[in-house]
Design a protein that fits this description.
This protein is an alpha+beta fold and about 575 residues long. Helix content is about 30%, strand content about 20%. The protein has three domains: about 110 residues, no CATH class; about 170 residues, no CATH class; about 260 residues, Transferase(Phosphotransferase), domain 1 (Orthogonal Bundle), CATH 1.10.510.
Length: about 575
């Protein structure tokens, strides 16, 4: 908890503490200046104090719908600093004496709470997102009436309060078509229920995904429901909409059905000049470099279908089916010249509306074009090829050597060396995602119990994974999932063979690696999914987070376990 909290404007009394009520905070550190000679202090106390300040900033950013926030620290009997945090970094003022210079803090606080200056009517604080507001009671009722025309959402939300308790009204863009030309139209999105997902990091993309219905659609029966993705894109990365457009163009040309695939229905860079909001709010200002490519741009993307987490699988067969579909979607994208590069538990989802949930692959934030894919993209969208701001995206080989991905699922070769990221690395990530799900969400018999997943995936080097693929699959051979997991393990093992060096006395030589292919991986999935005997009642278990106290973690085999999926 902060030492002192200042509430947002308009809050008269706080009966229970919520970060969403906080406007800024003050940390009183007495003897500790977090910065020493305008550099980060290296003492344990300074690092601890900076960590606390970072936690405050993170909580303010997550809860306040702000593009940047301010935090105050006081120290050494009358000294203070002001810190400005956004999703790219932070800046701090020089230390000043608020006793000897008594106007600094009051002036700062006035400007913080009155960003429009004297006479301004805005109730927002400085840095608060000017594209987000709270819906009126009348708007909430209209939203609830609209979603009640959906059989699925009518059952999900029993009252208007449940559906719209923390609802937000958010500006975004939806694409419309007129005379075969795509036109971006600004729309109001009303969120339904809590956020579907939210990144909890201080710096980075800060991704939040909402379930939304559009104001323009409220009068329709069963209006479309979208996933609204709010993200801070690094300037050196290509906008995600480019990859969605490239895949869609390829599917149209090849007459590939896109039903069940993730589709983009709108995208906007809020940092681009407009009269609808202040674009300066929507780009970070933390770097001291001349190169602005490290600053982050506030983006919103409107997507379908709305998903639910992979960890909610209704059976292990549905989990395997979702991963099989993800491989199919990955292959279509690669044929379109797009490489995903971030297979993870957050990027393979189930469709929310389907009774027998279908899986799909989404989130192309870290994707990259193949050289042929980039050529085809500019042929399909020539106006984007002439954009000088995109020159930074053109070094494909350099980009494909960047370390990208969610660490637990990264392929072994990428953990070992700096190599060009290939589709075979993403196929290996599918295997690690399957193992992750089984270790966390099934009643397995691994001797390390709830620590099994950490033992395999938390290591900063690849050796835990290397050891895993070189042992027989840790499964009950009577389980119907055994052939799937074992065949994938063997295929991943063959991909990571390391030939012995050619020395004169060598008597044995290991084989060259055999790269995973779509045909091999799809054949494994299709063969094993066609097998008989898949259980119907082995739905995902809630993962119990291990205790920091090792004595409290169950590591012994249970006496009467439910039919095991994993056993070692």
């Amino acid at each position: 908890m902060p030492d002192i909290t200042l509430s947002k404007p308009g809050i008269e009394a706080i009966t229970s503490w919520r970060w969403s009520d906080a406007g800024t905070v003050i940390e009183a550190k007495h003897k500790i200046d977090i910065l020493a000679k305008d550099q980060l202090g290296e003492s344990g106390e300074a690092i601890k104090a900076l960590r606390q300040l970072g936690k405050d900033a993170r909580n303010l950013l997550m809860a306040s719908s702000s593009c940047h926030v301010f935090v105050i620290t006081t120290f050494k009997q009358g000294w203070a600093r002001l810190f400005r945090f956004d999703h790219a970094g932070f800046r701090a003022t020089e230390a000043f004496s608020w006793l000897d210079e008594p106007t600094i803090l009051p002036t700062f606080l006035y400007r913080l709470y009155h960003p429009d200056g004297p006479g301004g009517t805005s109730s927002r604080m400085h840095g608060q997102d000017d594209t987000i507001s709270i819906p009126t009671r009348e708007e909430k009722i209209l939203v609830y009436d609209a979603i009640c025309t959906h059989d699925f959402y009518n059952k999900k939300y029993a009252t208007v309060e449940i559906a719209t308790k923390d609802s937000l009204k958010i500006k975004a863009v939806r694409f419309t078509t007129e005379d075969n030309e795509r036109i971006p139209e600004v729309v109001d999105c009303f969120t339904i229920g809590p956020a579907l997902s939210q990144s909890d990091g201080l710096f980075g993309r800060a991704t939040i995904v909402y379930r939304v219905i559009l104001g323009d659609d409220l009068k329709e029966d069963a209006p479309p429901v979208y996933a609204l993705k709010d993200v801070w894109r690094q300037g050196c990365r290509r906008p995600e909409v480019d990859f969605y457009d490239a895949i869609a163009a390829y599917c149209r040309a090849a007459r590939i059905p896109t039903a069940g695939m993730a589709e983009c229905h709108g995208s906007v860079d809020l940092s681009v000049q407009t009269n609808a909001w202040n674009p300066a709010l929507h780009i970070t200002r933390s770097t001291v470099r001349d190169d602005a490519s490290f600053e982050r741009h506030h983006m919103r993307v409107l997507l379908t279908p709305v998903g639910r987490p992979l960890k909610t699988f209704t059976s292990t067969k549905s989990l395997a089916q979702a991963l099989h579909t993800a491989v199919l979607h990955h292959q279509i994208a690669y044929d379109a010249g797009v490489l995903h590069r971030d297979i993870s538990d957050g990027n393979v989802l189930f469709e929310e509306l389907t009774e027998n949930p279908n899986g799909f692959l989404l989130d192309w934030d870290y994707a990259e074009f193949t050289p042929e894919g980039l050529k085809n993209f500019y042929a399909a969208f020539p106006s984007r090829a002439g954009d000088s701001d995109r020159d930074q995206y053109e070094d494909i080989d350099k980009s494909l050597k960047d370390f990208t991905g969610t660490f637990p699922f990264v392929a072994i070769e990428i953990m070992r060396n700096t190599v060009i990221h290939g589709f075979h690395h993403d196929l290996e990530s599918i295997y690690w995602l399957l193992v992750w799900m089984l270790l966390r969400h099934t009643n397995h018999n691994h001797p390390q119990g709830s620590l099994a997943c950490s033992a395999l995936f938390d290591a900063s080097n690849p050796w835990a994974k290397v050891g895993w693929i070189n042992d027989p699959s840790p499964v009950d051979e009577d389980s119907v999932i055994f052939p799937l997991l074992e065949n994938l393990r063997l295929a991943v093992k063959m991909q990571n063979e390391r030939p012995s060096k050619n020395f004169k006395s060598a008597k044995f030589r290991s084989t060259d690696p055999v790269r995973l292919t779509y045909d091999v991986v799809l054949d494994i999935f299709q063969t094993e999914l066609a097998a008989q005997g898949w259980p119907e009642d082995d739905k995902a278990l809630v993962f119990k987070v291990p205790s920091l106290d090792p004595k409290k973690n169950e590591t012994k085999k249970p006496e009467n376990p439910r039919r095991s999926v994993l056993e070692r």
